[in-house]
Amino acid sequence: MDRALPNSTPCSGDVRRNGLYRLALVLVGVAAFVAASSLLRGLQGPLKAPTLRAQVEAFLAAKDEFDVVFVGSSRIQRGIVPRVIDARLSQAAGTPLRSFNLGIAGMRGFEADWLIRRVLESEPARLRHLVVEAPHFQPEVVPQHDFTARYVDWHDARATWLVLRAIWRSSVSLPTKLELTWRNLRFFAMRSANYATSERFFRVEDPAWDRIVAGWGSLQGYQPLDEKTPQGARRRKRFLRNVEGFEANVEAIRLLAEAGRLAAPGSRLVYDQESLVEQADAIRAAGITPVYLATPALVRGPDFSTLHREGVIEHLIDLRDPNTDPELFSKRNRFDREHMNERGARILSARIADDLAPLVAKPVDRAEAADGPGAGR
Amino acid sequence: MLFTEFRFLGFFLLVFAVHWLLPWNRARKLWLLAASYSFYAAWDWRFLSLIVASTLIDYSVGRGLELTDDRTRRRGLLVVSLVGNLGILGFFKYYNFFAVSAAEFTSWLGLGLPLQALEIVLPMGISFYTFQTLSYTVDVYRGRLGATHSLPDFALFVSFFPQLVAGPIVRATEFLPQLTDTRHLADIALRVPLVRFLMGYVKKACLADNIAAVVDPVFAEPAAFDTVSLWLASFLYSLQIYCDFSGYSDMAIACAALLGYHLPENFGFPYLATTVQDYWRRWHITLTTWFRDYLYIPMGGNRVGPVRLTINLCTVFLLCGLWHGAAWTFVVWGVYHGFFLSLERFVPMRRLPSWLGHVYVVLVVSCGFVIFRSSGLAEAGVFLRGLVPGGATGAYAIWNGWWLLLVAFGLVHAALARWPVENPVRNSPGWAFAVVYGVVVALVLPWAANQYEPFIYFQF
User: Fold this and answer.
1) Which candidate from A3, A5, A8 shows the least CB-CB separation from B188?
2) Closest among A95, A92, A135, A141 to A112, alpha carbons compared
3) Cα B41 from Cα B43, distance rounded (Å)
4) Mean pLDDT over residues B101-119, rounded?
5) Over 70: is that where the pLDDT of A369 sits?
6) Which of B19, B262, B284, B324 is catalytic?
7) Of A188, B57, B194, B204, which sees the most CB atoms within 10 A?
8) Element (H, E) at A71
9) Average of per-residue pLDDT across A329-335
10) Is A131 helix (H, G, I), strand (E, B) or coil?
11) Rounded to whole angstroms, how far apart are CA atoms B125 and B132?
């Protein structure tokens, strides 16, 4: 503002104004801000983040064509080949079925939950089964996602409330609770204020973006890792450099599975079970059957087996045991430590399709599914 | 913690609320001191020790100066302060520059001094608070100011968080008297500082940070760009650094005002200047007046012959350049301005038509900033050569739409100088101000750059 605007000299009205009047003005200002921000949000287009929204756009463009949708992290994105699934499920059901891979790199429990709600809101006409990577509803902020447009974007009021509830129910230390609360509230504030979203005001035709969306659509969302890209080459090289470490890790997981100790110690203390129940209920309420999928990971996670035994998870496809599914843990079928290569993805997809087949073969009445077992748990 | 971050908003709201809830002035000052130290510690708590050391040195020296009239002892105490403060500043900011330069020079002579660069982290804002404490000691030494007896007051003067890391550089004569009065929230006009903070935010987050994304690649590789783009980038950088630094100053002055304190102005529409001398009266005012009062005038000021005057101006601006950073680019930038200031003593640029004066200042300042911003003198040379028609070697161009931003900025800059927003802000009804402020904040936030850029002047 420079020198032309000298700072505070009391103006005539200020002295006589009391605290309550000032507080009322603050509230008026906040209300005006909230109203204007909401209006502006309505004028904006969606976030265009290639790794996230292109895939969502590709799905929405053909949402009424799919019977089965997979939602999860990059393990889903790189590991599920919809065409393999389609062939097997169509054979089992005796009618052509189509699936879509809505796996997104780096997506964790609460973001996936937000995405599932967007899918349900779109009311896909044929969708009967939603296969969700068994979600890690643990309160955390992934460092590489901190302060990204994508992370801010999913922090709407409901998602933020779910995260905060999980944080304060968990047994993490008070400083960690405060830190996580602050971070998530900051994302919520940024989203509510449309912070740094000016580009969304401009809905320009973007052929490059359309090509990206078309690319996702052509493979029904499946995106294999490619050794020819610099990032893919780096990952692959890192994996090949430490294959022994990978095999030792598989052996450790095998022994843990043998001992029935795949769940991480204390995982139940930080796992927000209520979010999982609410998610499954929401899916069922839309007349869709939720199926949870524990992917063949090399880390110990939440205790999904117990949740399944206790009836919290009605349908669970559990692929975490190298003793029962050795091929999924073979280095020949892996691109890197966490992800399948194309051959492995086909094997994984076939394995999942076999487990899904009995469910899919049974005709589902949408109304019945909404009122069926487990609904409203 | 940057003023543009969400966490600063939380921090400031807490400081503001507690400050005005405390009924005693002494408690408020201690609260502000604790808040200021926390603010600095959020960057790196280890360097708090330097601020404390600087505070203790100058507080003790001030008390010592008060207790003695003996000239030798007084001079000795002044030397203690100068050595202590400039020693800390010199080590942290200039050791590597002088060590590497000396090693290169002696190596060129064939002597080869075994001086090596050290891994030194530059403490944030060290140049600002060092100059601030030095001004106190010199003023007490000269008898212009009585030594303060309250250590917390003095510590707050040195570390007051709104201006701790990037100014404005406050004199003890301006700030310490403000600490004796008890203020009341009802006496504080909140609207003007609120508007000022928002304008500072727009300058920093919406203009400077977005321009940085355009300008940085050009300065990283000037040889790749064509002449028009190089000119555009040099003008845009002039705009960026102005918006960055004056935006910070606006926010600092506004925060202080919301807490009931007055900080000096740091900018006066510098791009409306018609001579380089006029520009320096409008740009970083608290630094230029510091150099004027504590260096230029003691060197003889304007009452010396033309040759001595030229030498003095170039020396002062060389040091001003070095104050900004330990690199040859800053030295050359300082001397460059010293040269133009000297030139204007002999060539009456004031007589130019005002529009031509503006053009002259913008050209001189923008070319100067090319030297200032470049990573080295060689890169600055490539950039400056590229500004000459036919001198550019590259073909890359930046979007010409940015010229419109420059024109729009020039118009707004001139309009604000002529019609300050202060009166409409003060005279509007409270509810209207609240509604308009809320709506304007909502309109501004989407245009913030999508990442936090540190303030350029933090590094100084």
Assistant:
1) A8
2) A135
3) 5
4) 74
5) no
6) B324
7) B204
8) strand A68-72
9) 91
10) strand
11) 11
